[in-house]
Amino acid sequence: MKLHPSHLHAAAVLCVTGFAAAAGEPAEVVVVSATRVGHTVFDMPAAIDIVDADRIHASQARVNASEALAAVPGLVAQNRQNYAQDLQISSRGFGARSTFGVRGVRLIADGIPASMPDGQGQAATFNLDIAERIEVLRGPFSAIYGNHSGGVIQLFTRDGDGTPALETTLTAGSYGSRKADVNAQGKQAGIGYVLDASRFETDGYRAHSAATRDQAYAKLTLAPRDDAKLSIVANALRQDDTQDPLGVTWSSYQRDPRAGEIDATDTQSPKRTLADRYNTRKSIDHQQIGASWEQRLGDDRLRLTAYGGNRQVVQYQAFSKAFQAPATHSGGVVDFDRDFYGADANWLRVTQLAGGKLSTTVGIEYGHSTDGRKGYENFVGAQFGVKGALRRDESDNVSSFDPYVQTEWQSGAWMLSAGLRNSSVRISVDDRFLANGNDSGGLDYSHTTPALGLLYRWSPELNLYASAARGFETPTLNELFYSGVGGGFNFGLQAARSTHLEAGVKTRLNERTRVNAAIFQVRTSDELVVDSSSGGRTSYRNAGSTLRQGLELSLDSSWSTGLSTRVALTTLRAVYDKGFGLVQEGSRLPGVPNAYAYGELAWQDRDGRYGAALEAIASSRIYAEDANADQPAPGYSVLNARVNASQQWRGWRFKQFARLNNLLDKQYVGSLIVGDTNKRYYEAAPGRNWLLGASAQYRF
């Protein structure tokens, strides 16, 4: 399905404007993703984008990473209006089927994985209030990060520096949303520090979607010697009784996009929703700490990283076989306590070879998690939404062991990059609840992922590159827990394997306008697809092969008048190129738009005191299930506007902003629950909504 021209009208206007004029040259930022050797984005043989602090903080509440990631081509980051299930993020279609959290895309924060060893990650753990930048890597070189690397999103927070400073930020918006944040930073006696704490509360746009989120973060940086650096980071996330509004059917969405799905089986209260009847909700308590040591020995470098943490989750689902529970039913309440830890050690060696510079990184990464997992019925007597009888009791262990090597050779106009990683993932289950059978057992997955890239500097203003890789994706624990409808642990799931090809061009049209373009193809065998999904429980199966082919284009330009533009366009043909079951060859992958676009026209005065911007976002239709038989989410286009101001007085700096999203008050489906058995796929996005914010910083 093609994106209707009207959906791209605003973005197209910005694109033409961007090519027509120019101003100050965009700042160069050294990135470490892809090759692990620092280069600017322009000199990387990979599709990679930088989301800098200005864009992360640009008149946003800094609650969801989707606020800033919308401007990245190849990436679709959706706010589901459901803080119980986190964001829905996909990179070139990888991760689109996730019913909660992020999978298929690797998440990393300050060099420490925010994805578990099985590949499941939580973007909510990212602290955006003190973010310095986000690096987004797509394509073949993502595979060098191992399992579940259809893309890589790395968050880097700022180091404490300068004289002490204290800052507080308050925001308020539609649907009872409000946030308070306070942070302190500085450097004393050679120790840099950043401390941050925030609370976010919302009544929620959708019925039964209220949430409270508390976050805390601390970072210490020390330089015990001139050629060494020690960083210690700790963060915590707490969400108590976060309401889950669930998805709704197409008829319910059309009747009232904000309302929940009526429970047709509820004879006592015929208008009560499923979410209300089962009181669907999730409580999360997550904390972790990590440390990294970087030692430079001339041009060489040693880096050591270690981390550990705990995650506790209690979730009440809209799923119960009350009064007729089969032996295999594991209940509608999920309760697990996870301890996780890991380490990474790598050595960078720089030498000369054949008249060029050879940089080689050799490393080993290890991760481990242990879950104490229980399941309960979510009813007692005739009352739903309360913890009932025990139906599951087990210990789940996941470990990953990944040795890797990456090398880069530069000589004249050429850069050759190569990498090899061997990933071994071990999953084991010790079942202690035997009344429904013994699900104890284990699975082993292993795969070697090679990557190769070549960049040619055609001229100082034009770089050409090509790259290729093999990747793989194991099932996550949550994808293994169920088989079919009501079945136990799915030991038959295989890992998906993929082959990635990419070619691209990076050019400076002039000092003030830059264009990046990439074409790509990904072939995947044993693609993991939804088999059955209902009430928060989803089982998976391996399908045939899939094909992803697409084009990404980004353009940045600016003028001496203070105007600037940003355009990001993506087209993606993601299909099953081999049918299975009722799914015909050529059917589109669910959850993946055929086209997606972002456009921005912004203005900032020369002193940086005032600014304003108009944003346009457009998407083509998105299918909800593999056969493409049910109503897809229609394509949409929305406009957002923002204004900001800042002032300085002595040691004080003040900032204010206002944002109006969905200016034209469009009604549209913001995200989908892929493959829901009851056809409750649709999650509505808000209509016109507002956000106001103000901050005050004092530097001592």
TrEMBL record:
Protein name: TonB-dependent receptor
GO MF annotation list: siderophore uptake transmembrane transporter activity
PROSITE patterns linked to this entry: TONB_DEPENDENT_REC_3
Domain TonB-dependent receptor plug: 42-152
Subcellular location: Cell outer membrane
Keyword presence, Cytoplasm: no
An annotated GO BP: siderophore transmembrane transport
Keywords of this entry: Cell outer membrane, Membrane, Receptor, Signal, TonB box, Transmembrane, Transmembrane beta strand, Transport
Membrane topology type: Multi-pass membrane protein
Source species of the chain: Rugamonas aquatica
Superkingdom of the source species: Bacteria
Gene3D superfamilies: TonB-dependent receptor, beta-barrel domain, TonB-dependent receptor, plug domain
A Gene Ontology cellular-component term: cell outer membrane
Domain (TonB-dependent receptor-like beta-barrel): residue spans on this chain: 238-663
Span of the signal peptide: 1-22
Assigned protein family: Belongs to the TonB-dependent receptor family.
